[in-house]
Amino acid sequence: MGYGDDLLVTSLAAIEKKKHPDRQIVIGNLKKKNASHSIIYENNPNISDCRNLDKNKEIHLIDYHPENRPYIDYEKSTNKKYIWKKNFKAIPGELFFSNEENIKASQIIKNALNYWYSINKTIKPKAIIFLETTSTKIKHKNFSIKHINKSWGYNNWLNLVNKLKHKYLFINSVHEYSSNINGIFNADNMNFRLACAIMDQCNLYVGPEGGFSHVAGALKKKAVVYYGGWISPEIIGYDFHENLYFNDPNSPCGLYREICNHCENARKSITVSIFEESISKLIAEGF
Length: 287
Known about the structure:
- By secondary structure, the chain is an alpha/beta fold.
- It has 2 domains: 3-63, no CATH class; 99-285, Glycogen Phosphorylase B (Rossmann fold, 3-Layer(aba) Sandwich), CATH 3.40.50.
- Helices cover 35% and strands 13% of the residues.
- It has helices spanning 3-19, 99-120, 144-150, 154-164, 192-200, 211-218, 233-236, 261-269, 272-285, and strands at residues 24-29, 34-36, 59-63, 128-131, 169-172, 204-208, 222-228, 242-245.
- A 5-stranded parallel beta sheet has the order 5-4-6-7-8, sandwiched between helices. It has a 3-stranded mixed beta sheet with strand order 2-1-3, covered by helices on one side.
- Helix 1 packs parallel to helix 6 and helix 2 packs across helix 5.
- It is globular and about 60 Å long.
- The two termini are 32 Å apart.
- The model has no long low-confidence stretch (mean pLDDT 95).
């Protein structure tokens, strides 16, 4: 599963652990009788490490896997598009950082501020923003079309950053396919958990719906999230975020095997100015 799904299931694990405090809670596929580990589950007191279980304690498996996601209507979905369960509502998950992760994140924040002041001298940033522009799966052989449809597009992100980089310190999510935009800070050696710990020390998240929007949900972090018209924030979003959604008869389209013209219209409809206004609104509300 993706990290977003791994985060979604942590809220369910917390509920199940409360019901069954003496059981070892694991996540997996009930039909296949296997469990899966994720870096998202590390340090989580509600989820046992499936690689190191106590044979003398009862195991409680939560049936959550790529063929059983609670927000997808599998009976109505096709081999080209997902149909969403409109009665599903995401509950913020949980993340637990180690002291080492928090220390490394703090150092990266300091490095980012040094970068800011090397450019802007004595002017303080109005906010520190964790930025994601491109999915790690944008060129994946199975998932690229889905993420192209979900994306806001490089030029939109470039124009947004160029408008705002003199007011806000942007810290980039660094991975193989991340956009390297001039004027934003790029840390070295950023894995996903460290990126999450960095976000925890930023003022807000700006980026698309996906793993990091669910991280922002888990951290109770303010966020401006691009949904386009692929999936609705009423299903998979959080009410304390500014969720930018394309209200259109074809939304949410759920197309994952074909490039979607409707999603292109969403990119045009949700403008840089709309993003800018949403960011300004959250910052004005304070942190």
